[in-house]
């Protein structure tokens, strides 16, 4: 407790809470029990809320509609995804991407030129993770195309168990080509600072809640925020020991995280 | 070079060095015959995992190379030894054409994952199955970790990227049995009765053939056929950087013949 107190000393009042989606508020089409009420209680406090996700299979609109169907109270513009971050980068560098991204996520790239591609963008795209398509990407990168990873998650939770994320395929291409990918999603620092940028607060005034020790909590804490790890979704026993410093708090689920914030951090 | 013993064995890579798919490197058959006239043992060592020893032998015969099937040592041979030693039951992500080298190994209720060059198996569903087995404790065995290889239509991904991806996903390290592992080279030499300091390796892969051989104490000769790209002229291993770079097969012939005429490593280059 003494260690936590010393880390807490000097922290400013909480102004924003960033909340992961898949695995934290819901697992596929099922909400985490009590999460909707917990979110409402959080909104009654004077903090801004933003939903941040590395989910790359789905556009912002699809994510918003699912959360609405599960009775979560939110606006579409409170959602910030790694697809948003990727699009910004493509526009900034004027790249024409080969998009290894699920069809359902393509709408977030509407308006980006994709003919004669000169960059490779990899998201979570099981349909594209076959030898032939990966080989095409490999040859483009060997010829100088930059490799952009929407994120490098090792795995995610599906109804039938854990499943490979894009990370292993990005890592494989990095190994094959001796190139480093530019990663735009969690746990990159720029992802978190971009997410907070229109809320008018610094990382030291914010906390992140998520189920991925490295990507949610580790990434947030590395950018100066506090991190709360929840034991839902892809969490596995002992994950809290895989990052340093360890999470500010590890708790059972999102409602417990909200209780902790309301009682201790405001 | 000072202190090296006389040469007793030459290890020769196959794909990219003696031939590219079904075409022999020009002059290679004659060069091999001239090498055999010297008093050195010859062994053909390969990380090719798509093909069994028998298929490799038959191809080399069709291309008029002079060899015996038992002079071929592959990473599949090395993998089989490991499976037998540890009594693993493998999920074999290996091309059908290579399965005959695992005949007799029990594969029901697999408790280990073996990955070779297997484009047909490198799809999301199969890789996911392997991923879950490794998360549950199954060891990951890589026949080798080649980054890519040369096909008729250009370079193509090897098993290395997929092994690396599974290592990343599971936070586990694969056991690699093929080149450039030291054990592969020492196993290849073991029945020739000579040490690495009495042997030289010829190959087209700077890291896996030459780097690996030099790390085990052999000399390495890098040839510019097969998969060598312009940028790959430096060997990144920590071995002695005094490797030799030779122009195509033509110069290999003259180097080897001049070596054996003067019995002296130092006079070349």
Automatic annotation (TrEMBL), chain A:
The keyword Metal-binding applies. The keyword Magnesium applies. It holds the Pfam family Hydrolase_like. Residues 1-90 form the STAS domain. Its cofactor is Mg(2+). PROSITE patterns: STAS (PS50801). NCBIfam families: HAD-SF-IIA, HAD-SF-IIA-hyp3. PANTHER family: 4-NITROPHENYLPHOSPHATASE-RELATED (PTHR19288), HALOACID DEHALOGENASE-LIKE HYDROLASE DOMAIN-CONTAINING PROTEIN 2 (PTHR19288:SF46). Belongs to the HAD-like hydrolase superfamily. This is Haloacid dehalogenase-like hydrolase domain-containing protein 2. It comes from Neolamprologus brichardi.
From TrEMBL, chain B:
It comes from the Eukaryota. GO terms for molecular function: metal ion binding; phosphatase activity. It holds the Pfam family Hydrolase_6. CDD domains: HAD_PPase. GO terms for cellular component: cytoplasm. Keywords: Magnesium, Metal-binding. Its cofactor is Mg(2+). The keyword Magnesium applies. NCBIfam families: HAD-SF-IIA (TIGR01460), HAD-SF-IIA-hyp3 (TIGR01458). Belongs to the HAD-like hydrolase superfamily. This is Haloacid dehalogenase-like hydrolase domain-containing protein 2.
């Amino acid at each position: 407790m003494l260690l936590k107190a010393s880390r807490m000393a000097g922290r400013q009042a909480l102004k924003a809470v960033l909340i992961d989606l898949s695995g934290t508020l819901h697992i596929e089409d099922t909400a985490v029990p009590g999460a909707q009420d917990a979110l409402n209680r959080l909104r009654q406090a004077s903090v801004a809320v933003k939903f941040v996700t590395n989910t790359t299979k789905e556009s912002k609109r699809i994510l918003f509609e699912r959360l609405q169907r599960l009775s979560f109270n939110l606006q579409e513009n409170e959602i910030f995804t790694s697809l948003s971050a990727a699009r910004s980068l493509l526009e900034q560098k004027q790249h024409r991407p080969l998009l290894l991204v699920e069809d359902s996520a393509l709408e977030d790239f509407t308006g980006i030129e994709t003919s004669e591609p000169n960059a490779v963008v990899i998201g979570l795209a099981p349909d594209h993770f076959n030898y032939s398509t990966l080989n095409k990407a490999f040859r483009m990168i060997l010829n100088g195309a930059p490799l952009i990873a929407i994120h490098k998650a090792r795995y995610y939770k599906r109804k039938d168990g854990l499943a490979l994320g894009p990370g292993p395929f990005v890592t494989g291409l990095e190994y094959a080509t001796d190139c480093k990918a530019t990663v735009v999603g969690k746990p990159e620092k720029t992802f978190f600072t971009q997410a907070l940028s229109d809320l008018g607060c610094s990382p030291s005034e914010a906390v992140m809640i998520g189920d991925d020790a490295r990507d949610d909590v580790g990434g947030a804490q590395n950018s100066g925020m506090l991190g709360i790890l929840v034991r839902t979704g892809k969490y596995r026993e002992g994950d809290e020991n895989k990052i340093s410093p360890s999470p500010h708090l590890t708790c059972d689920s999102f409602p417990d995280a909200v209780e902790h914030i309301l009682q201790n951090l405001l």
